[in-house]
Amino acid sequence: FTSFTELDWITSAKESCCYVSPDFKDSINSALKPKSFTLPDGTSLVLDHERFMCPESLFQPSLLGLDCNGIHEAIYSCIEKNPVETRKGFYKNVVVCGGSTMFYGLVKRLQTELVSLAPERTVKIVALPEDRSTMAWIGGSILVSLSTFQKMWMSKIEYDEFGPKLVGRKCF
Q1: How many CB atoms sit inside 10 A of residue 135's CB?
Q2: What residues pair up with 64 in beta bridges, in sequence order?
Q3: Which residues of 71-102 are buried (b: 16+ CB within 10 A; e: fewer)?
Q4: Which of 91, 33, 107, 25 is nearest to 60 (CA)?
Q5: DSSP states of 98-139 as a string?
Q6: With contact defined as beta carbons under 8 Å apart, do 124 and 41 qualify?
Q7: Cα gap 75→114, rounded to integer Å
Q8: Looking at residue 1, what is its pLDDT?
Q9: Fewer CB atoms inside 10 Å of the end CB: C or N, the chain?
């Protein structure tokens, strides 16, 4: 994308057309009714399997050629690295926020996938209201405004001079 305007167009298409399939294998083999989306410049996009294939990469990053865990596996791994006595509370309070959590079906699929990884646990996904697409940004802005965080601030000039090593020096 060459501009924020184009990015906004694609974000709008993503939010109005895409969804997380409850059963990816079933969806990939089924016939779907394509959905059209018209960009503000008049260009029309016709989306078919892309509607669920793109969000599926959250659960199967290998679809994008990435060698990493899906979000359900990452959440499971993080929780399991904690002391046994705290895990129950974490499983009952999985909070999702950010723009991609707005995909229709994401919360239900995440619940299903986590229960399959931890069948002995009660899993509860906490999805905040419609404004959760900006909650990560709001939380980050609150964090960096805390006085205890100010010593970790760095300018672009500092970062350009010292690079990623500066993050380790200032933050850890």
Answers
A1: 17
A2: none
A3: bbbebbeebeeeeeeeeeeebeebebbeebbb
A4: 25
A5: SGGGGSBTHHHHHHHHHHHH-TTS---EEE--GGGGGHHHHH
A6: no
A7: 8
A8: 57
A9: C
Residue 19 in contact with residue 52, Cβ under 8 Å? yes
User: Could you identify the residue written with the tokens 């059209």?
Assistant: 36
On whether the CB atoms of residues 82 and 90 are closer than 8 A, the answer is yes
For residues 76 and 93, what is the distance between their CA atoms, to the nearest angstrom?
A: 12
As a three-state string, the secondary structure of 17-59 is HCECCCCHHHHHCCCCCCEEEECCCCCEEEECCHHHHHHHCCC
Q: Which residues in the chain land under pLDDT 70?
A: 1, 31, 129-130
Residue type, 35: K
Which residue type occupies 164?
A: P
Residue with tokens 């969804």: 19
Q: Which two tokens stand for residue 151?
A: 């010593």
Question: Which residue has tokens 């723009």?
Answer: 99
Report the distance separating Cα 125 and Cα 123, nearest Å. Answer: 7
